[in-house]
Amino acid sequence: MAVLDHAPPPFFKRGPAPLALLSFYVAFSIALFVLDLRFHALDIVRQAISLSTDPLQRLAQAPVRMLTEGSDYFLTLESVQEENRSLQAAQLAAAPTLLRLEQLEAENERLRQLLALQSREKAAGQAARILYTARDPFARRVYLDKGQQQGLIPGQPVIDEGGIIGQITRVFPFSAEVTLVTDKNQAVPVQVQRTGQRSVTFGLGNGQVELKYIPANADVQVGDMLVTSGLDGVYLPGFPVAKVIHVERDSAYAFARIIAAPLAAVESHTVVMVLHPREPLPPRPPAPEAESGKPAAKPARAGN
Amino acid sequence: MQASHKSSRILQPVRPWFIVLSLFLALLLNMLPTRQWPAMPDWVMLVLCFWSVREWRKVSMGWAFVLGLAMDVADGAALGQHALAYVLLSYGATSLSRRMLWFPLSLQALHVLPLFVLAQGIQLLIRMMAGGDFPGWEFLLSPLVTTLLWAPITLLLLAPQYRPVERDENRPI
User: Fold this and answer.
1) pLDDT, tens digit, 9 for 90 and up, residues B6-42
2) Are A192 and A116 found together in one domain?
3) Fewest CB within a 10 Å sphere: which of A252, A273, B69, B98?
4) Which residues of A, range 3-62, sit inside 8 Å of B by Cβ?
5) Is residue B34 included in any domain, yes or no?
């Protein structure tokens, strides 16, 4: 009866055949890929894996940071004093505006109350440092040194002293991922400061943004400032986003091709400010017809 | 002295902790902030390919998959992108291993070049299909640089196995 038992002795066992293993892993990878990019359903898996990769990554960055910050340490006293002087001068130059700003804000608030308008939200946030640029060459993202533990949530806008940098798209326990405004899938609802015309900017992937869906005969000039319109309920209105650097009108197309350069130091390492999420907008009034249209601004990763 | 099947030298067995250590160091090297140099070699790809050729019973697709997921999260790439590339690379390397080890190192490098190009190309393909930015053709320089490192990494990672069996007081190694 033992002869009928054809199972090989255990020391010949080598697990499944390579081709079977390969098909299993390939199918698994593709399933992960689709779930992640199409349905954004794997953020919890990502957070779990990041718990082990995040310390490694900080370890790998440590020597690089020591080199870059070590050179700061050896800066001469003179250059620091020089910088200090120029900062004081800049502060002095900004003082008249700042001093009047508070009074103007109070006045604005009173006038709005008189007119029974909704009061403006105040911008507040917490400072964070950019840890590193994501190595993924297919997207434009950076990582901040604060995360869930500091109360960051996806969707918060990130600014620096020049304007909008981007939006938090993923949070990890100790870091957060910011998709820059220059990313292809990042849309920011803006308006042209000079004329008040509303539109949406999309990243081009090469460090610039494009103003889309503006009619070819619209009044947009080179040098126009684009500021957030605030219609999306994500960005507060009035933050500078980009400056128009190129306008191309071709009568063959319905829309003008308008390229703008971001005003914030989007692609360089700086200290940034993460703004608190906005209060939710009042509910939308019921649409008169069935065709109400989608909101102009998709929250960041709704692209693809 | 070449580390191929042609040499009559019998190597010592590899130590498992050395494999783990080399893969770990490769992972650390890959995590350096090298975004502005697209031609940087993919160290994990290189070391993983080496062990898949040399020690395919110890390092194979399971390792490739786990390392790939780690790279996906570390890079901020789509989950499964590196995992898929590394698994295919590991499979290809293992199936080539019986053949390529009979060749000298320069020809071995030519064997692994298509594997590296395939692994990088498949990442490019699936990310472009998913609507990513085009990273530029220099993205495909990385497999070439990785291939150039095949000979040095072979000599480096095989060095511990050239130890003599008995210790000798008069011999330095």
Assistant:
1) 666 778 888 899 999 999 999 999 988 877 788 889 9
2) no
3) A252
4) 14, 18, 21-22, 25-26, 28-33, 35-37, 42, 45-46, 49-50, 52-53, 56-57, 59-61
5) no
Q: Is residue B4 part of a domain?
A: no
Domain count, chain A: 3
Residues A32, A168 within the same domain: no
ipTM for this model: 0.86
pLDDT of residue A4: 54
Backbone angles phi, psi at A169, to 5 degrees: -110, -25
Residues A182 and A133 in one domain: yes
Residue B84: is it exposed, middle or buried by C-beta count within 10 angstroms (0-12/13-18/19+)?
A: buried
Task: With respect to residue B11, please indicate whether it lies within any of the assigned structural domains.
Answer: no
Whether residue A166 is found in the same domain as residue A300: yes
Looking at the fold, whether A274 and A140 belong to one and the same domain comes out as yes
Q: Hey, what amino acid is at A125?
A: G
A22 contacts B33? CB cut-off 8 A:
no
Instruction: Work out how many domains chain B is built from and give that number.
Output: 1
Indicate if the alpha-carbon torsion angle B39, B128, B131, B72 is positive or negative. negative
Give DSSP secondary structure letters for A160-224: -SSSEEEEEEEE-SS-EEEEETTSTT-EEEEEETTT--EEEEEE-SSS-EEEES-BTTS---TT-
Beta carbons of A229 and A191 less than 8 angstroms apart: yes
Phi and psi for B122 in degrees, rounded to 5? -70, -30
Q: Write out pLDDT tens, residues A264-294.
A: 876 666 788 898 887 777 777 787 765 544 4
Q: Is the pTM of this model over 0.90?
A: no
- What is the predicted pLDDT for the residue at B24? 94
Q: Does residue B10 belong to any structural domain of this protein?
A: no
- At B150-164, the pLDDT tens digits run 999 998 998 888 877
Query: Which A residues, 193 through 222, put their C-beta within 8 Å of a C-beta on chain B?
Result: 205
Contact yes or no for A235/A188 (Cβ under 8 A): yes
**Residue owning tokens 């070449």:** B2
Closest Cα in chain A, distance from residue B115 (Å) = 15
Letter for the amino acid at A289?
A: E
CA distance A20 to A25: 9
A266 and A161: one domain? yes
A38 in the same domain as A59: yes
Which of A276, A163, A272, A143 minimizes the C-alpha distance to A209? A163
